[in-house]
Design a protein that fits this description.
The protein has about 350 residues and is of the alpha/beta class. It is about 40% helix and about 20% strand. The strands form three sheets. It has a seven-stranded parallel β-sheet, sandwiched between helices. The protein has a five-stranded parallel β-sheet with strand order 2-1-3-4-5, with helices on both faces. α3 runs parallel beside α4 and α8 packs across α13. The longest helix has 13 residues.
Length: about 350
């Protein structure tokens, strides 16, 4: 929650003086945000949190006196609050960032490896939006999901199905990795194929897919150009590539594209949903999970108009009810469901064939 002057109070925790300066300049330039303090290490941050009571913290993952993950784990146990991780765009950075999201961090800001000032400045609008989104995020449910996902068992099927004409399409953004975990971990091994557009950097999509593959009954992979789409498999759009579904003589295949961003995103949920509407149509089931903005809402409406069954994650269980909320506003959904009931509902729909 923000204070009476409506400014979001931010504490920046980073051992780089340059990053602290750049982030302060970016955030203070917005009239709705105020950087109330900075800290060069978690020990200083701990005292400033007590003294300043920030609404949002940006937290560097790699620091000398205490790494960001250790600090985040302690913070979420003792004083839960919205945290945005500052992550490097590397595979190592991806693994640690995904761990941070599991621990309860709301989102992350990608830190370029070179040209820090220009790189961060180029994403100033995204940084400001993420801070504003984090300030109003549903932190409590996000924490509960992170703790409970590992305990979920796959939904039981009373009979085996041949899902030759069924497909599940999912769109997600802020809070998406943990929401996707909740959905995918409960899918049975003979599930219809799943295609996913999650807003994620290029260096993160592969590690995310591998992480999911290690804990799910279905096989999860980063989608490849021309890859055949098969039952029991999940295809995650690579960061910086649109994922489309196309029907060929041998069935459905993945098509990747580096064409222009849609709704400022690549991959875009809009692009995925439109391709599913065109090539799969009424036998598709579309899911809109937690996320900031409106990407995919119009595409879901077109899917819905083609006869596909469309589900939006409800507001109570969404970290940010942007994308699902926009889909609901457009009349693009058949129902809204809490996150923990979505997989069971999917399986009930596809079992009606």
């Amino acid at each position: 929650m923000t204070d009476s002057n409506n400014k979001i109070k931010v504490l920046i925790v980073d051992d780089s003086a340059l990053v602290r300066q750049i982030l302060s300049e970016i955030l203070n330039a917005d009239p709705g945000v105020e950087v109330i303090g900075t800290a060069g290490d978690p020990l200083i941050a701990r005292e400033k949190i007590k003294a300043l009571n920030p609404d949002v913290i940006t937290l560097d993952i790699e620091m000398l006196k205490m790494d960001g993950i250790t600090f985040l784990r302690n913070l979420m146990r003792l004083r839960p609050m919205p945290v945005l991780m500052i992550s490097t765009l590397t595979e190592k950075g991806a693994d640690v960032t995904l761990e941070a999201l599991e621990l309860g961090a709301i989102d992350y800001i990608a830190k370029p490896k070179i040209d820090l000032r220009e790189g961060l400045a180029a994403f100033s609008q995204d940084i400001i939006e993420k801070v504003k989104s984090a300030a109003t995020a549903n932190l409590r449910h996000h924490q509960n999901t992170a703790k409970e996902s590992a305990l979920r068992a796959p939904v039981e099927c009373k009979r085996s199905f041949k899902f030759t004409n069924r497909m599940i399409a999912i769109g997600s953004s802020t809070g998406g990795p943990e929401a996707l975990t909740e959905v995918l971990i409960r899918l049975p091994a003979d599930s219809p194929p799943v295609v996913i557009a999650q807003h994620i950097p290029e260096a993160f999509s592969g590690p995310f897919a591998r992480r999911m593959n290690g804990c799910c009954s279905v096989a999860v992979c980063e989608a490849e150009e021309g890859q055949k789409i098969l039952p029991g498999h999940v295809y995650v759009a690579p960061g910086n590539s649109h994922l489309r579904v196309e029907k060929s003589s041998e069935g459905f295949v993945c098509r990747l594209g580096s064409d222009e961003k849609i709704n400022r995103h690549r991959p875009s949920v809009e692009v995925l949903f439109d391709s599913v509407a065109e090539h799969v149509g009424k036998t598709a089931v579309a899911i809109m999970l937690t996320g900031m903005g409106a990407d995919g809402a119009d595409g879901m409406k077109r899917l819905h108009d083609r006869g596909a069954y469309c589900i939006a994650q409800d507001e109570k269980t969404s970290v940010v009810w942007g994308m699902p909320g926009e889909a609901v506003k457009r009349g693009a959904t058949d129902e809204e469901l809490p996150l923990e009931k979505i997989t069971q509902r999917i399986m009930a729909i596809v079992s009606q064939d």
